[in-house]
Amino acid sequence: MYGKILRRSIPNLFTLSNLYVGFLSIFFAANGDFKNASTLILIGMMLDSMDGRLARMLNAQSELGKELDSLADVVTFGVAPAVLVYYVSFSNHGMIGLLVAGMFPLFGAFRLARFNVTSKNSTRYFTGIPITAAGGLLTFIVMLKPWIPSIVITTSFVILALLMVSKIKIPSFKDVPLPKYGTIITILFGLMLYYVYRSSDFPYFIYFAVPLYVLYIGYRFRKSKGKQKSK
Q1: How far is 25 from 79, CA to CA, in rounded Å?
Q2: What is the CATH number of domain 2-230?
Q3: Calpha distance 176→182 (Å, rounded)
Q4: Could you tell me which of 208, 126, 19, 176 has the C-alpha nearest to residue 11?
Q5: What is the pLDDT of residues 33-46, one digit of tens each?
Q6: Where in the chain are the domains?
Q7: Where are the transmembrane segments (predicted)?
Q8: Could you read off the pLDDT of 173-186 as tens digits, one per residue?
């Protein structure tokens, strides 16, 4: 009994960790530490890429987990990137900048709500860009601020917000074998590490997240190899 409860709780722990790094990102952004704020959002992407697949792998899917995942995504990939962009680019515009920044989590929340009520219709594509991808891309663009003009961040902000609520069909990665899908997230994560490796003051949460992610990818890769040999 306790084993079953623990097994069903594991994906939710990753989801809650995703939510927590989103909260930490907001804290760092509000204190002017944009490097750590960006890093934490990308760590959230890594955690978000794991919870759903862990739930399927452990046969621990639940309505609670789905709702919890949506709430975590709104914070980590909606509110946190919006706060980051506000302090990096929009704060000079006062209240107008604040109001504009707030549109990103609003659009993201609408996109998630629409996904939750229509996701059963198709697993082959998404309608509109997922909030995880939008928030992650926006964060990565903000990380490039020293080398790009502010107009690029502003334009990307607007485009990504509109893409979330658009009806453009985005291919789903749910059916992509994990080693290939994991490679995408691993590349983003590697870029993040390159971004922060020279800093002596980056989130200690990374020491917890990296080993978990490496073990997860290794286990899934080994499992997929086992399936191929058995065929």
Answers
A1: 10
A2: 1.20.120.1760
A3: 9
A4: 19
A5: 898 898 889 888 88
A6: 2-230
A7: 12-31, 94-113, 125-142, 148-166, 178-196, 202-221
A8: 555 554 555 555 55
